[in-house]
Structures are given as structure tokens and as C-alpha cells.
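Course exercise 7: structure representation. Students receive a sequence record and must write out the corresponding structure in C-alpha cell form. The form below is the worked example handed out in class, using Imidazole glycerol phosphate synthase subunit HisH (205 residues). Read each field label carefully; the graders check that inputs and outputs are placed in the correct fields and that the protein name is recorded exactly as given.

STUDENT ID: A-19
EXERCISE PROTEIN: Imidazole glycerol phosphate synthase subunit HisH
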Amino acid sequence: MSIAIIDYGAGNLRSVEKAVQKLGFSAEITRDKSAIRGARGIILPGVGSFDPAIAELRSLGLESVIEEAIISGKPFLGICLGMQHLFESSEEGKLAGLGIIKGKVVRFALDKNPELSVPHMGWNRLLVKRRSPILAGIDDGSMVYFAHTYHVRPKDDIIISTTTDYGYDFASSVWKDNLFGIQFHPEKSGEVGLAILNNFGGLCK
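STUDENT ANSWER:
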């Protein structure tokens, strides 16, 4: 298995798996620690609420496995809620995040933009600030699909890879060494999303 898709009960795992397999990569949905440790790359997806999901992840004993994988240098991709879990805390809940990335998760503050609604749903543009390896060949301004009420706010702006405008610019993807996080759903983002997953899969060979 080249890519382990972590199953902790949060997310549309099957659609991520199918998208990765469509690209020709070996991928498996798993919560088995040895399988995750043996994978060449790891995806942490996520849909839902912060606290229940992070609590389940910890109850399965997967926190240390994730930390080990990232420290070891394996390519690691957090998607949507999965990216948010990598941060220290979230305004959505009371539980601590994994704290692998310094910063917090905040709710959209759209008080001055009454024409916009929360959650942020649908297609929006990626504005490239720092081109990470998974953005190779992706045009600045490419459209991807979002579905979220909260977004990440890194302590260090240098890790922000793309921003997206929704009333104001928010960090829509981050990159630090072998660690990648994206707020949008690549499996729902057409050819652009598949290209991003293909770039990630190439890092896992």
C-alpha cells in the first residue's frame, strides 16, 4: 500500500479513496496502526465537527501514529477538517488539536459582508502565495470546491501556500516540509483536484 487514508469516522472516505485509486495509486482506508506506519504516504480527511472527530482519533490511538509519520518525513495530507486537526485549537470546540502546526481554527467573521453566508459552500479560487509540490502545474486562480464554516489561522504566515477570498483572504492551503493541508475537497474539485491528488501521490512513490 502506498497511501493510507485514515479512518476515524469523520469524512467521505470512500470518495477520497476512489479518487486516489482512479489516478493509479494503491490506497486503503484504514485505522490499523501498522498499516499506517507501513504506508509511503498518509491522508487525513475529515468532515464534521472538531471535538467529536478529534476525540475519536485519540480514542483509536492514532495521534502518536500521525506524529511519528510526519516526523519521519512521509508525505502527509490533511483535507478540510483533517487539516484543522493539525492546529492547536478551534473555536468550534473545547478540545485541543494535535498542535503539529502552530495556530488556531476560527469561524468566518463576515459581519461586514452581509451578502455572504456561512458556511462557505461551493467553488472559489486559489490564489497562490507559495507554490507547494502538490500545486505543481496548478494555475493561479484555479477553482476548487469548499464546504466549511471554520478556517485555519497559522501563527506563521510563511506556511500559507494559497489564500482564497470570502469576504477577506483566508488560508486555503498550507505547506511545511512534508506536511500539506488543504481546506477544500480535492475529490469534488474536478480536474484541478485530481491533479493535486496526483501530485501528492507522486511524492509517495
